[in-house]
């Protein structure tokens, strides 16, 4: 399942719901992305996430489908927030459930790497020097390429 | 066709989305970019670093040689920075 929302979410509750009622699941793996209070040498007071409604959902669904094609997964969840977020706030949540841990770990890693380079979100940072769009990192592209077959 | 602009492309063009008639001699994304650049200073500035600009047609990532028609939804944006 995927969700794109402005509101925060409760990771504990989401994890509980992900595996509820399915006793074939042997392991659940999750990743939570948080807003940092720094970028490079400077400090960040807040950030604003913009996205492309419609395409965002389409891309996240495609990424999730790809994970299910590659690993034996019982359930997956991707939540991505948009709007204004302050340091310490949750931005993104990825959770994967499978009979065995390898599939859960690998699929979780794959999903966060892939969505960072495919899902149409853009971060703008607010710092004492003003506002600035975050530049994409080459290391993120490299992280995604590692999953290419 | 519907054309959308995101992040600093939206700021530089001053447009978030618009409906436009595709000029007859424009057949692909690269042609549309060339045409948009000639519109005004804002568009010229937005597409000045053309190699950095990413494009989606009908909400799928594509390259600039991708063919387009008047029925398509085209979006221009910087490399994505979510996650």
Oligomer class: heterodimer
- How would a textbook summarize the main sheet of chain B? 5 strands, mixed
Q: What are the secondary-structure elements of chain B, in order, as H or E?
A: EHEHHEEE
By CATH, the superfamily of chain B comes out as: Beta-grasp domain
Order of strands across the biggest sheet of chain B?
Answer: 2-1-5-3-4
Rg from alpha-carbon coordinates of chain B: 12 Å
Strand order of the largest sheet of chain A: 1-6-8-2
Specify Rg of chain A, calculated over alpha carbons.
16 Å
Integer tally of domains of chain A: 1
Structure description:
The complex is a heterodimer of chains A (149) and B (83). With 149 residues, chain A is an alpha+beta fold. Chain A has one domain (2-138): Molybdopterin biosynthesis MoaE subunit (Aldehyde Oxidoreductase, domain 3), CATH 3.90.1170. Chain A contains four helices and ten strands. Chain A has helices spanning 11-19, 55-70, 101-118, 138-145; strands at 2-5, 27-34, 38-39, 42-43, 46-51, 73-81, 83-85, 90-98, 121-127, 130-133. The radius of gyration of chain A is 16 Å and the shape is globular. The mean pLDDT of chain A is 96. By secondary structure, chain B is an alpha+beta fold. Chain B has a single domain, classed as Roll (Ubiquitin-like (UB roll)), CATH 3.10.20. Chain B has a five-stranded mixed beta sheet. In chain B, strand 3 (54-57) and strand 4 form a beta hairpin. The model of chain B has no long low-confidence stretch (mean pLDDT 97). At the A-B interface, strand 5, helix 2, helix 3 and strand 9 of A face loops of B.
């Amino acid at each position: 399942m995927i969700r794109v929302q402005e509101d925060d979410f409760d990771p504990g509750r989401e994890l509980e719901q992900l595996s509820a009622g399915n006793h074939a699941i042997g392991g659940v793996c999750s990743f939570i992305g948080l807003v940092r209070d720094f970028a490079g040498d400077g400090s960040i007071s807040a950030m604003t996430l913009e996205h492309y409604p419609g395409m965002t959902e389409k891309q996240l669904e495609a990424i999730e489908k790809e994970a299910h094609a590659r690993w034996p997964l019982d359930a997956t969840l991707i939540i991505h927030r948009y709007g204004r977020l302050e340091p310490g706030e949750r931005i993104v949540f990825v959770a994967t459930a499978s009979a065995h841990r390898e599939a859960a770990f690998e699929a979780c890693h794959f999903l966060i790497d892939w969505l960072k380079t495919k899902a149409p979100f853009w971060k703008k940072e607010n710092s004492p020097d003003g506002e600035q769009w975050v530049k994409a990192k080459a290391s993120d592209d490299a992280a995604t390429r590692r999953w290419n077959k | 066709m519907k054309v959308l602009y995101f992040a600093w492309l939206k700021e530089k063009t001053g447009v978030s989305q618009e409906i436009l008639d595709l000029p007859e001699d424009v057949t692909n994304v690269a042609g549309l970019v060339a045409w948009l650049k000639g519109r005004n200073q804002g568009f010229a500035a937005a597409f000045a670093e053309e190699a950095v600009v990413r494009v989606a047609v009908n909400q799928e990532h594509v390259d600039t040689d991708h063919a387009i028609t008047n029925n398509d939804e085209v979006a221009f944006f910087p490399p994505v920075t979510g996650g």
